[in-house]
Amino acid sequence: MATSFDSTLANLGIGRPSTGTQVKTAAQADTLSQNDFLKLLTAQLKNQDPTDPVDATQQLTQLAQFSSVAGISEINSTLKAIQDKLAGGSTSDALSYVGRTVLAPGDTAFPRRDGGLTGAIELAGDASDVRVSIAGPNGAILKTLSLGEQAEGTVNFDWDGTTNNGEAAGPGPFKITTTANNKGAGIGTTPLVWAPVSSVSIPAKGAPILSVTGVGQIPTTQVRQIG
Asked: Each residue of 98-126: pLDDT tens digit?
């Protein structure tokens, strides 16, 4: 049966992939190209019964289906190339984090060179009162910032590095605690702090992992901003 089929293909100028030195997969050996399909279609038209011609609509449908399959195959190849490119870019991008500072969820903050620090709060809902408490290494509250009424989302804050008594707070590190309520009802908060990235690891799967001073190990997906 296969020999008869091969002979028919040969008469039409269509050959199976070579089985010589170049090894072909089973899928390649049983696959016809678009040119092969057109040759078969042309041969069908030439040898059809004039009294019972092939339905032209079916021919056009088959050709459209073949073109669609070929187009999808080309799209898949292009997407695979893009994916490989992005994977390489992700590695180099992850390594570029080392030595920079990032804004990420955490409660341990380090001051600027001139003292004080900046950070942010993510609010789960609208709040009528938002507060940030800053404690020293011994746990004692040094400063409480009142941010007043704030809408749901991210709220930035800035601390000048002085205590409630107006004295310099020192080198830190400082512990950040955030609270919020809406007319007495508690609102969820997430403190965001700026901290330096000391190293990065790239797992086989998933996002690269950053080692952030005072924060710990976090995936790059948790980074809100890069300094």
From this structure: 999 999 999 999 888 888 899 999 999 99
